[in-house]
Every structure is written in structure tokens, then in C-alpha cells.
Amino acid sequence: MAVTSATAEQKASPALFEIYGKIWNVQARLGQGVSASVYRVSSGRATSAVKEFQVDPQGGDYGYLKESSVLEKIQGHKNIVTLYGMFTNHNPFGVATHCLLLELLDVSVSELLVRASNQGHSMWLIQHCARDVLEALTFLHREGFVHADLKPRNVLWSADDECFKLIDFGLSFKEGHQDVKYIQTDGYRAPEAELQNSLAQAGVESDSGCTTAVDLWSLGIVLLEMYSGMKLKETVKSQEWKDNSSAIVDHIFSSNALVYPAIPVFHLRDLIKSMLHNDPKLRSTAKAALMSPFFSIPFAPHIEDLVLLPTPVLRLLNVIDDSHLYNEDEYEDIIEDMKEECQKYGTVVSLLIPKENPGKGQVFVEYANAGDSKEAQRLLTGRTFDGKFVVATFYPLGAYKRGYLYQTVQ
User: Fold this and answer.
1) What is the mean pLDDT of residues 46-67?
2) Given this model, what pLDDT does residue 78 score?
3) Is the pLDDT assigned to residue 203 strictly greater than 90?
4) What percentage of the chain exceeds 90 in pLDDT?
5) What b/e readout covers 175-211, taking b as 16+ CB neighbours within 10 angstroms?
6) Average pLDDT score over residue span 134-144
7) How far is the C-alpha of 285 from the C-alpha of 58, rounded, in Å?
8) Residue 186: pLDDT band by 50, 70, 90 thresholds?
9) Which residues are annotated as catalytic?
10) What tens digit of pLDDT does each residue of 303-332 get?
């Protein structure tokens, strides 16, 4: 984002936006950069995100025009945030600001890293994130664009689509036509971008622009952080990293080797190393990286994953005794009771209580959307049902629809 100054009035959170003749109330400020703020907004049962760009004192609309033009050209991919529209907001201080109306997403990889508490994420989560981001990059790079700011904060989970999506295209550019001097964020910056940024700071014109390879470097660092559970900014800035990053990656993997099965660990390590060559020409492309054997291994989510990543399906544990399952009248009563309770929080599409393993005695509730299931999860967790404390997690919609119920989720 370009650095701009703004008055306190302009930075104050608006109470509402009028978008295409409809009033959207601001529920929360989700983030603030130097050039834009992002808000969660609602109108009736609909929710979205608004990215409001600060007023440029020079009168230009560079940041807004750049991001909106890139987003318009790359719409339609499931792993890229959806742009619903653009509008001008007139605030009470008489200032007009340019805004983007965007798909509202959920937890970011940055938040997931904080919650990992230096433990590292499950192979299922790392594989899911890596595949989704590589799919987005394959599409983006095929269209000729470089994201140029891939980092944990710019990869968000979509509860309704059950996938990770790329956001924030404020530094993106067409390969071969780099119109941004300073790209990428410290800690996720490729060596060639580091050099180019330094030259630009010194006022020296660089002949060659950065390529799509900078995005693969950033993703390699993100995946290494997800595996280790640690922020690696200081590590990647160290002389030891510059001298032999491969040895440091090996050390990180050998330190965690006991936690994970060996073969997937080797495949993930090799995938990450393929993205972290100092020479951008030697780095894997996004399309080639998707062919890694790491993506052919099936993983089940951990219970922590199912708590962290919202979906439209809720799974309730510690609710049903075996005795309820084999008395048909009692079983039907329980189903009706659970439906009645769960419909207090949103529209229930289906409800399943398996009588046999896998999933025996667990309650699976499919809601019309993830907003309803999130509200239900918040309000049901810790409640008592028939004298027992309810444990509520989310559950992958795709697995539920296929009738695939995990026997054990560690």
C-alpha cells in the first residue's frame, strides 16, 4: 500500500455505507493499513467486506485504481477473493472516499500461526493451504500477474467455500511491466526483490523487474512457518540463511521430525526447498509445485483444525449416549430435539446422528451458510444437553456431503 497521510476524521470508523442505494451497517474494523481500512458490513442477513481507501492529499487515486483494475481482470477463480463492486462513499465530513465491496472471508493464516503456539500446524492444514494458494498463483501467473505481497495476512479462509483465498492486490503488477518500486513485505521478500528495493531506495534504476518467482519464495516461507509454528523473519534476514538456507530448512524439519510421519515430511521439505532457491530461474513454478508428491497423500484434519476453520457443518460431541441410539422412539425424539435446538441459531438443511462407526453418536448439523454455523458453534459450546457439556467443532462440508465421517480426529 502507498503511504499517505490522513486526518483523524478520515481515519475514524464510519457507522455505515450506502452501497447501490442500500444501507450497510459497519460491524467492525477488520484491518487498517496506511492507505486503506477494511470493515465488516451487514445489510439484513447479508455480510460483506468494504475496503475504504484513504484520501490522497495529492488528489490521486492510485491505490484504489490499481487494486480495482487488477481485481477486475482476475475475477472468477475460487482461490481469489471476489470483488462485488466499487463505489464512492461520502462521509459526514464532506470527504468522498473510494471503496471496494468484497467477499467477506474468515480467519487468516497469520491468525492461525498465532494460535499454533509454536507447535506447527497439521499436515492436512498445510497441504490444504499450499494447494489452494498454488492454484491461485497458477491462475494469476497464467494471466500474467505477480501478486508481489504474499504473506500470512493475505491468505484467508473462506467458510462457505471451504478453501483459502488470496487477497490484497495493491502491489500486484503485470510481469514485465512492474510499476511498483517497493514490493513484498519484510520477512517474505525474495532476494531479487530485496536487491531491487535497495537499488530503488538508493535512486538507482534497475533494468530488470521482478517475476512471478517472487511469489513462490514468499509461499515457501509461509509454509515453513506453518510447519514450524514460528515466525521466521529474523531467521531469513540472518547471514546464516543467506549462506546456506537449505541447511536451515533441513534443521527445522529434523527438529520436528518426531511429530509427523516421515514420508510426508520429506515431500513437504522438498516442496518448500524448491521454492527457496536464491536464483529465481531455479525456483519451482506454481504449476510444477502442484505436481509434488506431497499433494497425493491423504490427510485427516486434527480436532484443532475443525475448531479453527469455520464451515457450514457443525459437529457436536459428548451429546448422545449409546442407549439413545438403539431405542427407535428415543432416537427419533433426540433427532427432533436436536433439530429444534439447532434451528434457534439458523436454517438447518440436514441433521445426522450415525448409529454406527464412523461417527457413532456424533451429531452433524448442516446449516444454510457458515454464518449460521459459526453463531451456533459460539452459543452451543459449553452448553449442557441431558446433563453433559457440549463440544462443538466445524466439519468439512465436502466430506459430510460424501458421507465420509472421520473415525478418529486427533
Assistant:
1) 85
2) 97
3) no
4) 63
5) eeebebeebbbebbbbbbbbebbeeeeeeeeeeebbb
6) 98
7) 39
8) very high
9) 132, 149
10) 889 889 999 999 998 888 777 788 888 888
The x, y and z cell numbers of residue 342, run together, are: 439447532
Cell of 56: 490522497
3-state DSSP of the chain: CCCCCCCHHHHCCCCEEEECCEEEEEEEEEEECCCEEEEEEEECCEEEEEEEECCCCCCCCHHHHHHHHHHHHCCCCCCECCEEEEEEEECCCCCEEEEEEECCCCCEHHHHHHHHCCCCCCHHHHHHHHHHHHHHHHHHHHCCEECCCCCHHHEEEECCCCEEEECCCCCCEECCCCCCCCCCCCCCCCHHHHHHHHHHHCCCCCCCCCCCHHHHHHHHHHHHHHHHCCCCHHHHHCHHHHHHHHHHHHHHHHHCCCCCCHHHHHHHHHHHHHHCCCCHHHCCCHHHHCCCHHHHCCCCCCHHHHHHCCCCEEEEECCCCHHHHCCHHHHHHHHHHHHHHHCCCCCEEEEECCCCCCCCCCEEEEECCHHHHHHHHHHHCCCEECCEECEEEEECHHHHHCCCCCCCCC
181 annotated as a binding-site residue: no
User: Alpha-carbon distance 324 to 30, whole Å?
Assistant: 44
**pLDDT tier, 297 (very low <50, low <70, confident <90, very high otherwise):** very high
Q: Is the pLDDT of residue 378 over 60?
A: yes
Reported as a single tens digit per residue, the pLDDT across 275-294 is 999 999 999 999 999 999 99
Q: Which of 94, 6, 96, 13 is nearest to 50 (CA)?
A: 13
Rounded to the nearest 5 degrees, what angle is found at the Cα of 246, between the Cα atoms of 244 and 249? 120
* pLDDT band at residue 5 using 50, 70 and 90 as cut-offs: very low
Q: Which domains does the chain possess?
A: 8-102 (3.30.200.20), 109-296 (1.10.510.10), 303-401 (3.30.70.330)
